[in-house]
Amino acid sequence: MKLIFAIVQDEDVRRLMDGLTEKGFSFTRVASTGGFLRSGNTTLMIGVEDEKLDDAIEVIEKKCKTRDRIITSPTPMGGATDIFIPQPVEVSIGGATVFVIDVEKFFRI
Amino acid sequence: MKLIFAIVQDEDVRRLMDGLTEKGFSFTRVASTGGFLRSGNTTLMIGVEDEKLDDAIEVIEKKCKTRDRIITSPTPMGGATDIFIPQPVEVSIGGATVFVIDVEKFFRI
Amino acid sequence: MKLIFAIVQDEDVRRLMDGLTEKGFSFTRVASTGGFLRSGNTTLMIGVEDEKLDDAIEVIEKKCKTRDRIITSPTPMGGATDIFIPQPVEVSIGGATVFVIDVEKFFRI
Ligand code: NI
Ligand code: NI
Ligand code: NI
Fold this sequence. Notes:
Number of helices of chain A: 2
Order of helices and strands of chain A: EHEEHEEEE
Strand content of chain A: over 45%
Helix content of chain A: 10-25%
Low-confidence stretches of chain A: none
Strand order of the largest sheet of chain A: 2-3-1-6
Number of strands of chain A: 7
Mean pLDDT of chain A: 87
CATH topology of one domain in chain A: Alpha-Beta Plaits
Distance between the termini of chain A: 16 Å
Radius of gyration of chain A: 19 Å
CATH architecture of one domain in chain A: 2-Layer Sandwich
CATH class of one domain in chain A: Alpha Beta
Oligomer: homotrimer
Bound molecules: nickel (II) ion
Structural class of chain A: alpha+beta
């Protein structure tokens, strides 16, 4: 048995939880903030059988992978700093920090 | 030293914390939601000496074991779906998901 | 790779996070309550390379070490229990409970 601590961006939590549930993985969600990832994040504790570890990691990679997004951000016009023009800007979102821990004993009651 | 992650139902947290304290176990409580258990849950991190692991597990089993409870739930009367009659219904409460992790180094400062 | 669970007093969290960031350590912060430490506490999950473990522990020791503080507390005057006189009282603050766990697999995506 392994216990995965996956710290993911808030934006990806719902997608990740849905993906894990679809594949039959159990998890609990812990509120966490700051640190590993720039914006708001959440820590999922995911319990997995040894032989399903790679499947679980695949779900995390798929649902949380870093990707670029074009957002339209007001940008100050050159020269006149109080005039802002909406400009497309590329930002990086997603990403996860993942720790896999060996579990010595696991049980449900 | 072992670190126990016990995910328990909110309903059992107080009982479990009292039971652990009575036996001299130290723990911290982390807010968690969804996943392993259907309703609201809480994760306790419990630090235990190797030789006291079984004692700690015994406390968890005793305080969180799944049990049935009879609740009175309004049930639609057969045929007329807008008439509800209070009926005794058996629901399952309690339960816990428990991970025991080996601790490589432990200290208090 | 190691994962440190450091349960520290709320009062020390900011100092500890600043100290860890200065030294280049990554962490996430989990809301926790009661148990290991008397007053409000916070759990930091800190991921560290094996060879930097001692450095990280040093930061925790430095930022969270138990120290005495003199506070002025209203104390009942001997005899007349409804008269309170401000008295300097020494209280112990700080302290941390620290678990170091071995990480089997670690990755960022
Ligand atoms: Ni295992
Ligand atoms: Ni041990
Ligand atoms: Ni390692």
